[in-house]
Amino acid sequence: MNIKLLQKELLKPLQRVSGAIEHRQTIPILGNILVETDKNSLRLIATDLEIEIIANCSFISSEEGARFTAPARKLLEICKNLPSEAVIDISIDKNRLTLKSGKSKFYLSTLPPDDFPRLESPAAALEVILDTATLAAMIEHTSFAIAVEDVRYYLNGLYFEIKSNSITAVATDGHRLALYRSTQEIPLPQQQIAPIIPRKTVLELLKIIKDSGSELKIDFAENTIVFSSENLNLTSKLIDGRFPDYERVIPKNNKNIARVDKEELRSAIQRVSVLSNEKHKGIRMTLKQGTICLESSNPEHDEAIEEIKAEYDGLNIECGFNYAYLIDVLNACDSNEIQMAFNDSSSSVLLTDPHHPQATYVIMPMRL
Amino acid sequence: MRARPSSQTAIQLSSNSRRIAHLDMDAFFASVELLRRPELRGRPVVVGGRRAPAPLRHPDGSQTYARLGDYIGRGVVTTATYEARALDVHSGMGLMKAARLAPDAVLLPADFEAYRAYSARFKAALAAITPRIESRSIDEVYLDLTGFAQGSEALAQRLKQAVFEATGLSCSVAVAPNKLLAKIGSELDKPDGLTVLTLDDMPRRIWPLQVARINGIGPKATARLAALGIHTIGELAQADPERLRAHFGAACAAWMQQAARGHDERPVMTESAPRSISRETTFERDLHPRRDRAELGAIFTALCERLAQDLRRKGVASRTIGVKLRYDDFRTLTRDATLPAPVREAGAIRRAAGECIKRAPLDRPLRLLGVRCAGLVADEAADPRQAALPLEPVSD
């Protein structure tokens, strides 16, 4: 069998599906992509048994019913190093793939396509059409707070809470929490749907939705979620667990409220953080009438101090924070102002963007 | 086999450009004991058994040692002196069996505190020569000597001298282009050995050796290779790659053949995080999984609790939990499970290990139980300064 296509048509779909493949592979076939053709389409499929990504690819000519696997990384590296207008000619003979382009020839070993594992997609309990910009915003405002390989496995993903008039995305690693609520009418699901989407899926999803057109269909099933657009399809298993009661940890009565210029606060934190303790990343924040003072020091006795203007007439409060947690929130906020609501030095701070009420952030302090 | 002379030469050149030493202490524990008890020199001495009787000290300063032939119990040989090895006693052997082979050997209880102290001393002496040192175990290190002006033999001599001055103990050293060959080399001339190997020495000195001499080819792979008619490293190097692939898979076959040809690019790791932590215990008497359920359960829980403490002390959590069972007939088997997320608490370790045990046959008595935590990752939640959100699981 034989396929001809342009480098520029192949590269992007290949990059997109390769995101599913784990770098360290114990099962050889999972390092390969499956290529399938029918009359009008050529599909690339990759999986790590938790996620499956399918991308459609344009081609010049192709034989119907071709089906083979090829080593993903090698194919991607070869493709990346060919010029974008290059015509790529792929043919399969027994267990060998021959790739020709101009004067280059590559011979790759393949594995039997029937060994390639596919994820099952069970019947959807709920189907939602979401515009990609909204989904991207939900992920961009929350994904940084998803736990990484936490013992509490249900924190290693982004929680979606679906109600009749809103979808809320929540992420927490146990030290900070990020929430984004999008208001839109949704057909009420038959059963309660509360998926926790694995961190890797969320990050891959963000990469692929950017070139997926304006709308995306989401099928929620019992243990699986499927995102599909015209050219792409991502199926992922869900984290089997219950997300904690996040509402309880969002402070409701923090009365000491400061408003500051976001950019000013961010650059000040970045400067002060240079001399903070590299290991625990703590900086001290002191709030007084009209100002916020930031301080850091490290075991080598270096110190940094910076004071910035703030709208503040609450109590004098001094507390410590992991500066990376503050920077993450400030990077996620869209407008030029940030509001921080404190209770006292040992309780959590609530951060909000006064111009974009969809996002809410909670950060626990650090003892310095 | 397709010949690719040009790439081969390139690899050889790059490999020969490094100089890696493997240094292995000679009969380490036993040698430390002899150092402290010079009167035992020349006699077969065996170290092992937690409850082996300590030497009896007499008022005139002389000591009476336990005779191996009198030992009753189920301890194993930790180390044997070369005199004892000559009688076929070797590490890992049951002490009772060793007693039959060398009844007149002296038996000493293991004194790990002393061995650790000597280990620290010889490693410090080596670290003074080069900071590029990887500690492989209590009595074994790799050193990266690339860039030294001295010749390999002189350098090896310098390492041996430094170890001797620091501890009074002898060791065996090999200098080679990589870790794999250095490790094989240090075995070639034991004890008090000094070996220098280059890739040119491969056909003459390495290829006639058994495949099991390659670190990483264990008894199982050796048996499978033997079934293919491959016994020596040379035969492995020249075996048909396709045939190896068919039996061992592409990655394993490629690795074995690279190793047999003397190629190994692993760097000397100066700082290595632990890969796994394990705890195991041999019971005072064999315990039956059903009849002695309560006793076994208590030992199992205690092992998991000690592992949880080990994890906490190292600031890591574990993704792969495994168990090791040894039956009364000495058959040993392991079962492990990789979890969706790392665990660090004794309860979670016990649950996962319990699932592993269920996958093993439990129809006969056990003499040993072990639990192992691998797939270690840094435990983010370990910093006590950072306050935590009061997250609570949802109750139905």
Tell me what you see in this structure.
The complex is a heterodimer of chains A (368) and B (396). Chain A is α+β, with helices and mostly antiparallel strands. Chain A is 17% helix and 41% strand. Chain A has helices at 7-18, 72-80, 132-140, 199-209, 262-273, 323-332; strands at residues 2-6, 32-37, 42-47, 51-57, 61-62, 67-71, 87-93, 96-101, 104-109, 126-131, 157-163, 166-172, 176-183, 196-198, 215-220, 224-228, 232-237, 256-261, 282-288, 291-297, 303-309, 317-322, 337-342, 349-353, 356-363. In chain A, β24 and β25 form a beta hairpin. In chain A, α1 runs antiparallel to α2 (72-80) and α5 (262-273) runs antiparallel to α6. The longest helix of chain A is centred in the first third of the chain and has 12 residues, at 7-18. Chain A is elongated. Chain A starts with a strand and ends in a 5-residue tail after the last strand. With 396 residues, chain B is α+β, with helices and mostly antiparallel strands. Chain B folds into four domains: 20-26 and 114-203, Alpha-Beta Plaits; 29-109, MutS, DNA mismatch repair protein, domain I, CATH 3.40.1170; 207-260, DNA polymerase, domain 1 (Orthogonal Bundle); 276-388, DNA polymerase, Y-family, little finger domain (Dna Ligase, domain 1, 2-Layer Sandwich). Chain B is built from 14 helices and 15 strands. In chain B, the strands form four sheets. Chain B has a five-stranded mixed β-sheet with strand order 8-9-1-10-11, sandwiched between helices. Chain B has a four-stranded mixed β-sheet with strand order 5-7-2-6. In chain B, β3 (56-57) and β4 form a beta hairpin. Chain B is globular, with a radius of gyration of 24 Å. Chains A and B meet through loops of A and β14 of B.
